[in-house]
Amino acid sequence: EPEVTQTPSHQVTQMGQEVILRCVPISNHLYFYWYRQILGQKVEFLVSFYNNEISEKSEIFDDQFSVERPDGSNFTLKIRSTKLEDSAMYFCASSELGTVFFGPGTRLTVL
Amino acid sequence: AQSVTQPDIHITVSEGASLELRCNYSYGATPYLFWYVQSPGQGLQLLLKYFSGDTLVQGIKGFEAEFKRSQSSFNLRKPSVHWSDAAEYFCAVVLNTGTASKLTFGTGTRLQVTL
Question: For residue B110, is pLDDT > 70?
Fold first, then answer.
C-alpha cells in the first residue's frame, strides 16, 4: 500500500540554524501539506501546496518557512533560522479526493 | 471559524468494554469528517471518514462512527476494546472546497486500556 515517507525521523539542531525536512508524498496525489504538532498539543496546519505553488498557509507559516517540490517526487519544508519554539513533530501529508494521508513525522528538536 | 471539540481529554476503559469517543464540530455546512489515531511516537493513521451518504461509517480495526447532523457530532465507537487500541484519537474536519484539504483537528482524546 502506498504511503507518505519522511526523512529524517529525528533532527536535532542549534537555534538559528537552517533545517530541511524531506517528504515523499504518495505518487499519484496532487495536494501536499505540512502540519506540525508541538508536544502535548493538537496537530496544526502549516501549509498546502498544489501545482507547484502554495495554495494556503496558516499564520504560523511565516517568512522563516518555505516549501519546495524540487523534483517529481520530493516535497521539502525549510526553516531558515530555527527558534526554540519550532521544536515539534512535523508531519508531511498528501491527499486524493479529499482524504489526507500522513507520513510518520519528523521530530525536530531545537537546542 | 471552523472548530472541532473533543470534550474528553483522557478516557480509561477495561479491555473488552465498549468505547465511545465524542467529537463535535462547529461549522455552517457539513464538512468532511475524519478520525485519526496516533500511537505513541507514531504518525497519524486514518481510521475512517465521512463525506456523505450513510451516516454510519465503518473503519479499520473494528471502529465505526456515526454522523448526526442535528447534533453536529461524529462520535467514534468500538464495541469491544483491545489493549492495542491504547493511543490518542483525533477528530478532524475539512471544508470541501474542491481544492486542498486543510484539516482542522480537535485536541485529541487519550485512550488508556486496562487489562
Answer: yes
**Are residues B90 and A43, on separate chains, in Cβ contact within 8 Å?**
yes
Grid coordinates standing for B14?
Answer: 477495561
Does any CB of chain A come closer than 8 Å to the CB of residue B3? no
Establish how many alpha carbons lie within 13 A of residue A33's alpha carbon, considering only the half-sphere containing its beta carbon: 26
Confidence (pLDDT) at A70: 87
- Name the residue type at position A39: L
Cis check for the bond before A8: say yes or no (omega within 30 of 0). Answer: yes
> Reading across the β-sheet that carries A19-24, which strands appear in turn?
A5-7, A19-24, A75-79, A65-68
B97 and A CB contact within 8 Å: no
As a whole number of angstroms, the distance between CA A26 and CA A6 comes to 11
Task: Using a pLDDT cut of 90, give the percent of chain B over it.
Answer: 75
How large is the average pLDDT for residues B103-108?
A: 93
